[in-house]
Design brief:
The protein is mostly helical and about 100 residues long. The protein has helices spanning about 30-40, 40-60, 70-100; strands spanning about 5-10, 15. It is elongated. It starts with 6 loop residues before the first strand and ends in a 5-residue tail after the last helix.
């Protein structure tokens, strides 16, 4: 269910825009760290947002029955950019885990 503003409504959890919900295969603890980094680190937030914009565009292109040659090239570019962004996001989460170890 979404609100009039386009936010995903999740009963029992904080309301958040759809791109701020764990819709992928990210471990819950990593997702929690990602949300902390989004709030505290503008560079991380930009990476996160760009990754989800690319994911949405890839989904749009994937829904098409036929792709033009230009769209096929765009899909390849999106895949490369998504992978690069995913690696950078994972790196920042790893760095956070080293800098802020979990409580004992």
């Amino acid at each position: 269910m979404t609100s009039p503003a386009g936010h995903l409504i999740i009963i029992g959890q904080m309301n958040a825009p759809a791109e701020m919900t764990n819709q992928g295969n990210m471990a819950p603890e990593d997702f929690e760290i990602a949300m902390k980094l989004c709030a505290a680190d503008p560079e991380f937030k930009k990476l996160w947002d760009e990754h989800h914009e690319l994911k949405e565009r890839a989904r749009e292109l994937g829904d098409k029955v036929f792709l033009t040659p230009e769209e096929e090239l765009e899909v390849k570019k999106i895949k490369r950019l998504k992978l690069w962004g995913k690696d950078k996001i994972a790196e920042k989460i790893r760095d956070y885990k080293v800098a802020v170890p979990p409580p004992a």
